[in-house]
Amino acid sequence: MGGIAGLTRPDLFIERMRIGGEWMAASGGGTVPVEDPATGETIGTVPAGDAADARAAIDAAAAAYGPWRRRTAGERAAILERWHDLILANVADLGRIMTAEQGKPTAEAEGEIRYAATFVKWFAEEGRRIGGYDVPAPTADRRVLALKEPVGVCAAITPWNFPAAMITRKCAPALAAGCTVVVKPSELTPFSAIALVELARQAGVPDGVLNIVTGLPADIGAELTASETVRKISFTGSTRVGALLMEQSAPTLKRLSFELGGNAPFIVFDDADLDMAVAGAMMSKFRNAGQTCVCANRILVQAGIHDRFVERLGAAVRALTVADGRRAGATIGPLINAAATAKVAGHLADALAKGASVAAAADFAHDETRFSRPVLLTGATTDMRLATEETFGPIAPVFRFEEEAEAIAIANATPFGLASYFYTDNLHRAWRVAEALDFGMVGLNTGTVAMEMAPFGGIKQSGLGREGGRAGIEEYLETKAFHWGGL
Ligand code: NAD
Q: Which residue ranges traverse the bilayer (predicted)?
């Protein structure tokens, strides 16, 4: 039992955490099993790391910091370029590991690996362009400069829905900036993260620069947040845990970057291109079985296009294939666990009880504790749970609206502010609506907003800071004012 079938490089499947230059068991000796969400079988175990292990990893990162920081930007970039190339050389194996622990279909898993690699490449390049500036001084005998320096030892805490991309989106800019890192991946999907750390080692990332601690989230999190050595926490996950980490980080006043939950509106106006809108809705709603923070949670459709849109989207929903992610042709894999399928079922039942109707559904004959049936709902209203909470599953609720202002009001009526999407061919409306949407990201006539060159992040309770793009490396840099007098 256990293991992952079909790996060309079985050495990438590692049941250990890495601290300093060592692959380690937990100091307490315990392990945590990792399940395949499609079958419930145990794939393997990882060390049940605790506060002592987190402390050892922080110490290793602190010891490695000085030498890593003193490397030239070009040397760090060359190592990151090698890491990028190794990730791409192992797409199939990394994809297999991901599907085994996370469930997403093979094509999507491989897509995520390639996406994860783009951050390594981008930040390898960005690291060479870090630059401060000088400003005219108040007197002739003085110079005033703003220098950019790495923040120091950073911690990265990541979720299960993007087990590879969330690692590289944090670690690549940190390493490029000259920081060292302790990663704590989700206990549900640690093997993708561990494999990436092994490839980083092979690429030449020195011992202690990139550490990974698996195990008990609350214990490790408490240590990472309490530590005075850790200068920054980058977290992606739920708003609940983000708020907790913020509270725990207050006594040491850490820098924080948080990518938290969303409740994305997806608005289709009467003048939208129907083909584009349907394709965008499928991509935004059903990627990763609906388990994405930027996923269309509320589909708002104007009355004049409503019936045509529902008919077309319904046909696309019926064409989805729910299956084990390893099966050829699978488009919707299992959800991450039974709690996830129960939440989705709860949202569906609540919506149906409050008057929504099923307009279309995909074929489904699966274990309902592991898989959820993709469903298109019409007649969704703002009093339903799926209007106010992230569903994180393959339910597409359509809300009908009449006026632009009404759609904007519904869209913005959420404490979250991560992604938003709208479809229109009207130029005036395009700018007006883009400005009116209270979100960190707006997609016009597209269902995708995540890519390495663009700033990704939220406002309101969706988070702090940005990842990716030029902004992504700034999160790992401090600005030091250097005043030089007496010239
Ligand atoms: P989660 O908050 O339960 O867990 C995220 C990480 O935090 C995991 O590594 C977990 O082990 C860890 N964690 C849990 N309790 C902790 C504690 N007390 N101290 C320290 N760490 C702790 O979230 P999840 O269920 O893994 O991920 C889903 C959530 O993530 C959704 O809300 C989704 O919207 C959000 N998300 C946001 C983005 C974004 O970029 N904004 C991207 C992906 C996911």
A: none
Decide whether any atom of ligand 1 lies within 6 Å of the 158 Cβ.
yes
Question: What's the pLDDT tens digit per position in 424-439?
Answer: 999 999 999 999 999 9
**Which residue's CA is minimally distant from atom 9 of ligand 1?**
186
Ligand 1 center from residue 339 Cα (angstroms): 15
Does residue 296 lie within any of the structural domains?
yes
How many domains are contained in the chain? Answer: 2
Atom number, ligand 1, closest to the C-alpha of residue 239 = 32
3-state secondary structure labels for all residues of the chain = CCCCCCCCCHHHCCCCEEECCEEECCCCCCEEEEECCCCCCEEEEEECECHHHHHHHHHHHHHHHHHHHHCCHHHHHHHHHHHHHHHHHCHHHHHHHHHHHHCCCHHHHHHHHHHHHHHHHHHHHHHCCCCCEEECCCCCCCEEEEEEEECCEEEEECCCCCCCHHHHHHHHHHHHHCCEEEEECCCCCHHHHHHHHHHHHHHCCCCCCEEECCECHHHHHHHHHHCCCEEEEEEECCHHHHHHHHHHHHHHCCEEEEECCCCEEEEECCCCCHHHHHHHHHHHHHHHHHCCCCCEEEEEEEHHHHHHHHHHHHHHHHCCCECCCCCCCCCECCCCCHHHHHHHHHHHHHHHHCCCEEEEECCCCCCCCCCCCCEEEECCCCCCHHHHCCCCCCEEEEEEECCHHHHHHHHHCCCEECEEEEECCCHHHHHHHHHHCCCCEEEECCCCCCCCCCCECCEECCEECCECHHHHHHCCEEEEEEEECCC
Same domain, 130 and 278: no
256 and 269 housed in the same domain? no
**Ligand 1 atom at minimal distance to the Cα of residue 259:** 41
Q: Are residues 78 and 112 in the same domain?
A: yes
The CB of 399 under 6 Å from ligand 1? The reply is no
Domain match, 251 and 270 both = no
Residues 296 and 435 in one domain: yes
Instruction: Summarize pLDDT for 222-257 with one digit per residue, the tens.
Output: 999 999 999 999 999 999 999 999 999 999 999 999
Query: Is residue 159 domain-resident?
Result: yes
> Tell me: the pLDDT tens digits for 308-348?
999 999 999 999 999 999 999 999 999 999 999 999 999 99
pLDDT of the residue at 42:
98
Q: What is the pLDDT of residue 30?
A: 97
Q: Taking the complete model, does pTM exceed 0.95, yes or no?
A: yes
Q: Which residues are catalytic?
A: 259
Range of the domain at 381: 264-444
Instruction: Tell me, yes or no, whether 14 and 159 share the same domain.
Output: yes
Both 174 and 224 in one domain: the answer is yes
ipTM higher than 0.90?
yes
Q: Write the CATH number for 371.
A: 3.40.309.10
Q: Which atom of ligand 1 is nearest to the CA of 456?
A: 40
